[in-house]
Amino acid sequence: MNVYDSGRIAAILESLGHHATPTLKEADIVIFNTCHIREKAAEKVFSDLGRLNLIREERWAEGKDTIIGVCGCVVQAEDEQIWKRAPFVDFATGPLTYHRLPEILEKVRRKKGTFVIDTDFPAEDKFDSLPINHASGGCSFLAIQEGCNNFCTYCVVPYTRGAEYSRPVEAVLEEAKRLVADGSVEINLLGQNVNSYHGEDKNGQERNLAYLIRKLAEIDGLKRIRYTTSYPADMTDDLIACYKDVDKLMPYLHLPIQSGSDKILKAMNRRHTSGDYLRIIDKLKEANPEIGMSSDFIVGFPGESDEDFQATLDVVNKVKYIQAFSFKYSPRPGTPAAIMPNQIPEKIKKERLEILQNLLFDYQTKFNQASIGKIMPVLFEHKGRHAKQLIGRTPYMQNLHAELSSDYLNKIVNIRVTDATTNSLTGRVEGV
Ligand code: SAH
Ligand code: SF4
Predict the structure, then answer these.
(1) Most buried of 9, 39, 260, 401, CB within 10 angstroms?
(2) Which residues line ligand 2 (CB under 6 A)?
């Protein structure tokens, strides 16, 4: 979502006549798009701002002014603190107000030296006010949902991104058609809680994600559909059925469980048990036996015992994830878990994370190695480090490198996998 937002911010600046510079030193405007989900990400903003201030001062000595802005969830959470900690920042705007950048920049120019801040949860639709979302390649992000009403006890998202909101069906379909006309063959639908999507159709009827996926699949030229991130309790049977009926829906699902312990899941205020989660996966496998699973995990949530942690490892051993993201619990100001008793010492969090990651890497490596010899359709998205090398993604989101001319960029090519590591595959065009 942050990559998507940064792209939209860049599009706003382009619509105002700006263009990207190769180095920071050449930039008249620098905007940080920020994440508040864990402490480390949030704190990094301030050290990066400190470094940027040195560049700003160098430019100042050369007679050049620099406008510095901060966007995203850190702004929503820290508010005026941004200016207190980094008094050279010109403006700050939250994740729901960055479409107002043209007015904000105008204000900054008029009031240079003061701090302009906008952290509204605005009534107007951000998505209606943004410039057209043009495809930047074969694979495009399309935001369909924003915010979250789940209030997991560790998470800042409901506070920084606000209440859940779904874009209307027609707006999504129109944007998807435009992205495909622009050259995208894959669309990744985005939302903090994307499978709780409930946008209105043109008759005012609420439609869910399964409906939207089936509608998108009718678009000629669109070859792959993905969506991220999903909440287990919102995995409805009709969404699961899409894995059986909709060929364009990729056989890969990121479905965060967070913990395998029911005690911890309850303390996290997740509306599912580990049993519910495993039953969903059984149903998914029934719909498509080839489906590959991914997840997010938090270790060291307050009160997590050795047994609770073992329950998480048990889930990993059952599901055999093909990819996963895992984090040490990070107490976030203002969330209920931050003041829960029995906070886990850093040392234990670190040990548990290492054990979990080793197990996850093992399964990921095994899955990648089992791909050797297979032929996979790969969408090539970037040039590689070497000449004539392209990097793309398999249906399972594995990165794959192949020697291929850039004519194949943004195209889907059948590749035979020849080698695999934990993080990537190598392959060659079948038949060449
Ligand atoms: N809506 C998604 C996740 C969005 S946040 C869901 O419910 O699954 C992305 C991930 O960051 C979460 O899945 C969680 O694993 C992690 N995360 C969120 N808050 C965290 C915290 N306080 N400490 C550590 N990890 C956290
Ligand atoms: Fe955060 Fe996801 Fe829970 Fe919402 S569902 S509060 S985004 S972890």
Answers:
(1) 260
(2) 148, 150-152, 155, 157-158, 192-193, 231
Cβ atoms of 29 and 18 within 8 Å: the answer is: yes
**Nearest ligand atom owner, CA of 193:** 1
* Ligand 1 atom with the shortest distance to the CA of 297: 15
Residue 150 has pLDDT above 80, yes or no: yes
Calpha distance 49→70 (Å, rounded)? 9
Residue that has been written with the tokens 């496998």 in this structure: 285
Q: Cβ(231) to ligand 1 under 6 A? A: yes
pLDDT of 324 higher than 60: yes
C-alpha span between 302 and 152 (Å, rounded) = 13
pLDDT, one tens digit per residue, over 10-39 is 999 999 999 999 999 999 999 999 999 999
Q: Which residue, 207, 245, 210, 206, is CA-closest to 227?
A: 210
Order across the sheet with 29-34: list the strands: 29-34, 67-72, 91-93, 116-118
- Answer whether 193 contacts ligand 1 (Cβ < 6 A): yes
Alpha helical stretches, state H, 268-345: 274-287, 306-319
CA 383-22-74 angle, 5° bins: 95
Output the residue whose Cα is nearest ligand 1's atom 24: 329
Mutation to probe ligand 2, out of 155, 196, 197 (largest number of atoms < 8 A from CB): 155
Give the predicted TM-score (pTM) of the model. Answer: 0.94
Nearest-atom number in ligand 2 for the CA of 192 is: 7
In this predicted structure, the answer to whether residue 146 has a pLDDT above a threshold of 60 is: yes
What residue has token string 């027609």? 170
Beta strand pairing status for 91-93 and 67-72? parallel
Distances (CA, A) of 245 to 231, 241, 249, 250, 251: 21, 6, 9, 11, 11
Element (H, E) at 292: strand 292-299
